[in-house]
Amino acid sequence: MGLATIIENEAHFQTEMANAGTKLVVVDFTATWCPPCQRIAPFFEQLPAKFPRAVFLKTRIDRLQGADPGSLEAKVRQYYGTDEAADEDSAVAGHMDLVTFITKSECECLNESDDHPLAHALNNGNGYLASDCDEQLIINITFNQVVKLHSLKIKAPADKGPKTLKLFINQPRTLDFDQAAGNMSVQELELTPSDLEGNPVPLKFVKFQNVQNIQIFIKDNQSGGEVTLVNHLAFYGSPICTTNMGEFKRVAGKKGESH
């Protein structure tokens, strides 16, 4: 059973943070005289066993206000990823599935089938994405905070899966097909059938260090047919510590009012 690491001093804390790399780090700032700290301590000690791929640290401070076990576990689950993805995560060492950072309501796919939209491909095992009028697709994925992208994972049929991809980042709006075909991309990929088995497809990591959105132009498919299919599309990397404005809640007054 895993245990939280007790932090002895600031140097020890900095060392543990550096050693964690891109792993999720959860720190319990505690004090022996603090009743909320003592109430949440047994619960916190259970978390390392539940989430072995995360790093749990414990350090004493002068003050801690409140303790909410439910919110603590919810936050760990949000950034840790799903249990079903654990085996897949191990194939991309040091990086996580960024599905929890995708703002699905702001994502878009041009030329998607009404019966098989992009949403089906963003949830593994819940259907598939299919093109409509021809084989081409433009997929616009928006993240709720800035991320670093390391690789893609695509599951698709060997004959109808994507072949040529052009990747664009941080575009102000969704490109149209003429723009996607003519504009310079950040990276272009030529996929093979083995790439469509869910194997990680590495990106030029240095070019994907500050990504708010990514657009994928699927130019053609493996067989040259009229319909392109994608069973699952996933993005692997790590979030950059920025403020997610979507998590702010109004506490008083109406929108537009001054205080």
TrEMBL record:
* Keyword field: Disulfide bond
Would you indicate the residue range of the signal peptide?
Answer: none
* Ranges of residues in domain PITH: 87-255
Q: Where are the transmembrane segments?
A: none
**What Gene Ontology terms describe where this protein resides (cellular component)?**
cytoplasm
Please tell me whether the keyword Cytoplasm is annotated for this protein: no
Coiled-coil features, chain-numbered ranges:
none
Q: Superkingdom of this entry's organism?
A: Eukaryota
What InterPro entries does the entry give? Galactose-bd-like_sf, PITH_dom, PITH_dom_sf, Thioredoxin-like_sf, Thioredoxin_CS, Thioredoxin_domain
Query: Domain Thioredoxin: where?
Result: 1-174
Designated name of the protein: Thioredoxin-like protein 1
